[in-house]
Structure prediction request, 207 residues.
Amino acid sequence: MEYNNNKTDLLPAEELLQKLKEHAVQKNYKAGEVILKNNSYIRAIPFVISGIAKVMRTDEDGREILLYYLKAGESCIMSLAGGMQQEISKVKLIAEEDTELYFLPLEKISFFLKEYPQWLDYVLMLYNKRFEELLEVVNAVAFKKMDERLLNFIKYKCENTKSKTLNITHEQVANELGTARVVVSRLLKQMEIEGLVKLGRNKVTLL
Prediction:
């Protein structure tokens, strides 16, 4: 997956953002906290106000893969689609860092669609962005070597945290990339030999 660390351009118009604040419930999550569980009922749609959250897909065996990140101004379009269809969540949403969110109750979605035409534009832009990101995931899994995916992942994380050192385990990296821990450990060791990274206890430093 090619990670894009540019600031999002999907922040709703000021008027729409103010209306969202009036009708939504504000919540804060610490890094690592689960915001939305897989297979749970969707009663409200999350919007990231500050921080970053990640959307993970889990299979029947408990294996996970990262689908995309949510930055400030963005919402989880899969939660929106599932909620409007009264389905359970097919993804898990986790706070990547300390994150503030607004949760818009499902019953307010129709109201926003009717009263604010710009809301539909916002939702369509989100659909387009998420579709492109999911295509990148498919492209990476199908056509890119794991070492390339791993290096892109590390670079993105470093840019996002504004630090050259990541406090992350090999198991966590493997989960997000949808591969085995032993594969990640082997590739990281090879990258260290090549002078690309430096490894420590639950740490990876980009050189």
The CA atoms of residues 51 and 99 lie 4 Å apart. The chain has a mean pLDDT of 82. The beta strands are 25-29, 34-36, 44-50, 53-58, 64-70, 92-95, 99-105, 165-167, 197-200, 203-206. The first strand starts at residue 25 and ends at 29.
